[in-house]
Amino acid sequence: MINESFARKRLIECCHLLYERNLTVSAGGNMSIRLSDDTFLITPSGVNKGLISEDDLVKMDFDGNVISGGKPSIEHRFHINIFKANPDTEAVIHCHPLYCIAAMLRDHALNTTITPEGVLLLDKTPMVRYEAPGSDELVEAIDEYVEYPAILLDKHGAITQGRTLEEAFNRMEELEFNARLQFLCPNVEGLASEEIEKLRRMR
Known about the structure:
This protein is 39% helix and 16% strand. The chain is of the alpha+beta class.
């Protein structure tokens, strides 16, 4: 169990950093952190992540009930499912990173095994079919990939999870870095398969 006051402070710091790094804009995206086996904090609906405060966060249980705070993100259900499926996951981040979305709009698959850091933090990164944000269909589509540390949402954005909030943030930043790198070097080849396996054993 994590101290709620500390968790609020850390999640707000993360939201501000995501905004400053241009990994999310305006009220886009949603971020959450596990408090216990059955409670978590999540960002509210419609609040700018660069201006969000600790008091804005919504406390919920894993049945989807609001314990305190206002209106949670409309996408809180896939956060719940990821937490339930992965007991070691402490944080879930959903953003709309520019280069990740641009790659999907150009029908370019992202290769997240072209750098050592990509393999260590991300490895294979699947893309979920497009479904409307907040819809039952999107929740169901994400459910097929809840075990992956990072996933792309077609025409929508990306989701990362981590055993710590910092790990989830690092994965989102690395994902966008890989997308930008492939825009700059569109014909880059990935690491050799034996090198990828070596890196996987290091995780």
